[in-house]
Write a structure and sequence with these properties.
Structural class: alpha/beta
Shape: globular
Helix content: 40-55%
Radius of gyration: 23 Å
Largest sheet: 6 strands, parallel
Number of strands: 8
Distance between the termini: 63 Å
Number of helices: 19
């Protein structure tokens, strides 16, 4: 491992319910003229609050623009041609990953100061130094790396708490993926300092999800900014970004991605993925498959249980992908750059063998048909004939739910014997 000179810039951020009141103090040293760029819904949720605090801080908003629909180089070129962009001292990027990534690609290369205002917590775009670029048709193109992230991120937890909970839900899946992908991609290697820091720190992408994930989602559904929600938001937006920056110091995804993300990007070939599902939602499913391929049965069961608790996907049906489409994807996944640095070659045969190891576990009761009174009531009230599992999976050879239940009975008997004594 050779010695080298390098630079590495970590994110600066503010977090809390009233962090926008720091806009003037933090941003004014960069100038006074501001162009706000974001998604339509994001601007509706945050622009008035941003505008008031910007004015109170002595800043002048000279324009407000919709970024587009996808993070593409064409969208970047359109925004760069705007007079308001050329006249602005800085850009405020408001919204989710695609809006913020578009603004990073727009501003960082030409050294225009930019500040991020995430309105949802579905990914780490607000604090990281990479933009995920797409083709105009919505399919994945490539990652575009930068030497540093945005100048500052304003993470307003009240605005995020008021957003639809499915964004935080998907963000959880995208975040815990970082832990497993970093560990697998770096396995058995002597790592440079920055990569080793990223891999070690990646454990913080999983731990808060196990401890706070369920409560954070409940609080999000109620629109309440709580400690649990803040812990999960920080893990999604900040921790994952810090890990990403350390892991991509050499401007490659070698340690920053893996099979879970390769599954997602391969599946973007089907329009339903981008139109009906969120990035982290599909990545959360991809983690299950990655753990099976890697032979981590115990971790697979842990994440399978977590996904069940949070209602993240545990089957192809839940992400609206057919068996035929998954079979087609197995030809594309091995070609993805996300797994070029895996400690073993991921082939179609390896993935097919992993699928044969999959089992279905459930603590019971499970609502998978209309043969129970509660099952009928759920169907009559909500129109769902199946909830957390389909009847096909529940009754399949892969289902070991009754073996699991029997094991629990023996465990209970052992506990009773140990506590009652002689």
């Amino acid at each position: 491992m050779k010695l080298e000179n390098y630079e590495l810039h970590l994110p600066s951020y503010s977090v809390g319910k009233e962090v926008y009141n720091q806009i003037g103090k933090i941003c004014k040293p960069y100038g006074t003229k501001v162009l706000v760029i974001g998604g339509k819904k994001a601007l509706s949720a945050a622009f008035d609050k941003i505008s008031k605090n910007a004015a109170d801080g002595g800043l002048d908003i000279i324009g407000k623009e919709i970024y587009g629909t996808d993070c593409t180089y064409e969208a970047v070129e359109r925004l760069a041609a705007l007079t308001s962009f050329q006249e602005a001292d800085m850009v405020f990027a408001v919204g989710g990953g695609k809006a913020i990534d578009t603004c990073k690609c727009l501003c960082i290369e030409c050294e225009k100061p930019m500040f991020t205002f995430p309105t949802i917590a579905s990914n780490c775009a607000a604090c990281t130094s990479v933009s995920i670029m797409y083709h105009e048709d919505g399919t994945f193109f490539k990652p575009h790396f930068f030497t540093h992230p945005a100048a500052h991120a304003f993470i307003d937890t009240q605005i995020i708490a008021a957003a639809p909970y499915r964004y935080l839900w998907a963000g959880i899946g995208d975040t815990y993926a970082k832990n497993y992908e970093a560990e697998i991609s770096s396995r058995g290697e002597k790592l440079p300092h920055y990569t080793e820091v990223g891999v070690g720190f990646s454990k913080m992408c999983l731990t808060p999800m196990l401890e706070y994930g369920r409560q954070a989602l409940e609080d999000n559904k109620k629109g309440v900014a709580t400690e649990a929600l803040e812990q999960v938001v920080l893990a999604i937006v900040v921790t994952t970004a810090i890990v990403s920056i350390f892991l991509t110091r050499d401007f490659t995804p070698d340690y920053n991605s893996g099979l879970a993300h390769a599954c997602f990007y391969a599946l973007t070939a089907y329009p339903v993925i981008e139109k009906e599902h969120l990035h982290g939602e599909v990545v959360g499913f991809g983690v299950l498959y990655a753990l099976l391929v890697d032979g981590q049965q115990e971790e697979f069961e842990k994440i399978y249980t977590l996904n069940q608790q949070l209602q993240l996907p545990t089957s192809l049906e839940q992400i609206e992908i057919t068996e035929e489409q998954w079979e087609e994807s197995m030809d594309r996944i091995p070609e993805m750059s996300d797994i070029r640095h895996y400690p073993y070659k991921v082939t179609k045969e390896v993935m097919e063998n992993a699928g044969e190891k999959a089992i279905f576990l459930h603590c019971l009761p499970a609502f998978h048909d209309l043969k129970t009174k509660i099952g009928k009531e759920v169907y009559e009230k909500f129109g769902y004939s199946e909830l957390e599992v389909t009847d096909e999976v529940f009754e399949s050879e892969r289902s070991v739910v009754f073996d699991e239940a029997e094991n629990r009975m023996h465990t209970i008997k052992a506990v009773m014997l140990a506590t009652l004594g002689e």
